[in-house]
Design a protein that fits this description.
Helix content: 25-40%
Order of helices and strands: EHHEEHEHEHEHEEHEHEEHHHEE
Oligomer: single chain
Number of strands: 13
Distance between the termini: 21 Å
Largest sheet: 10 strands, mixed
């Protein structure tokens, strides 16, 4: 295709070019055209799709009171140290507001940002993020993999424990209500037959880094956090599980220069090298489509 984003695309796109942009099969594009759901023109028997009409169509492809309103260029959702670093280093100039997965999903549905980092475990099926996204993301979005993370208990050096039950009685820093980490900690405790009351609260942290820092500074005796942050903060780590961390991205924003710059950086050797320095982070699944509303 002539351009990698809609802004760089030719004035008229072919069905194949549009399919590549939307990340759908070419057959799906023809179905949309036949149903009159996508702007197109037929010239000498060939379907062409006007770029500017497509832009308007994509911007309007959302539900709710703010449908069609321009999304602010903000990255929402759950905090991840690798994602935080990549947003800065990519030069994409996308600011972030990380305040938990549930908050990010709700703000994304309200069109308050162009993307959100998520790790939401469905309590019924045990599936990750897809059920919540399918129910609450609205239209015009795609969920792709970012990384897999190893999660467990962060503890002061020399005060580790062989199992979760041995930590009972220690003051644990909590995460904010609605965060994927806090919901997952409750699930882990229930699976282990432990009550939340067995772990006195030591305040609240609103990011993975803040939780690790609370333990490092002695304000808490443990945190349910990421292995990648144990060594940088001089902490011991008790592994408990692995979780997928995914990105929910607005389809129109995906093809614009800021997001394309960020995605290109995440495919670079610099990103791969950085991920290799973060124990417990695996980027094998980066870019893998997990859900698409098309």
């Amino acid at each position: 295709m002539a351009g990698s984003t809609l802004a760089e695309a030719p004035e008229f796109l072919t069905a194949r070019e549009l399919a590549d942009l939307l990340r759908v099969k070419e057959r799906r594009v023809y179905d949309l055209a036949a149903a009159g759901e996508v702007p197109c023109a037929r010239v000498t028997g060939k379907l062409l799709f006007p770029r500017e009409a497509l832009r308007a169509w994509l911007e309007a492809a959302a539900e709710g009171p703010a449908a069609g309103a321009a999304r602010p260029s903000v990255f929402l959702g759950s905090h991840d140290p690798l994602l935080d670093w990549a947003l800065r280093e990519s030069g994409a100039a996308i600011p972030s507001f990380f305040d938990g997965s549930a908050d990010g999903l709700a703000r994304f549905a309200a069109r308050e940002g162009i993307a959100a980092g998520l790790h939401l475990r469905d309590p019924v099926s045990g599936a990750w993020s897809v059920p919540a996204v399918a129910a609450g993301a609205g239209r015009g979005a795609v969920l792709v993999g970012f990384c897999t993370r190893r999660r467990g208990m962060l503890m002061p050096a020399g005060r580790g424990a062989p199992r979760l039950s041995a930590l009972a009685g220690r003051r644990v820093i909590r995460r904010q209500s609605g965060s994927g980490a806090q919901a997952l900690f409750a699930h882990v405790l229930a699976e282990a037959g432990l009550e939340p009351a067995a772990f006195p609260a030591a305040g609240e942290a609103r990011s993975e880094a803040d939780a690790a820092l609370a333990v490092a500074e002695g304000r808490a005796e443990a945190a349910f956090g990421l292995e990648a942050l144990a060594a940088p903060y001089g902490l011991d780590f008790l592994p408990l599980l692995e979780e997928p961390f995914d990105l929910l991205v607005d389809r129109a924003a995906w093809f614009e220069p800021p997001m394309q710059r960020f995605l290109a950086f995440c495919a670079s050797p610099a990103f791969e090298a950085r991920a290799a320095t973060m124990p417990g982070h695996d980027i094998t699944a980066f870019g893998r489509v997990r859900w698409n509303d098309a």
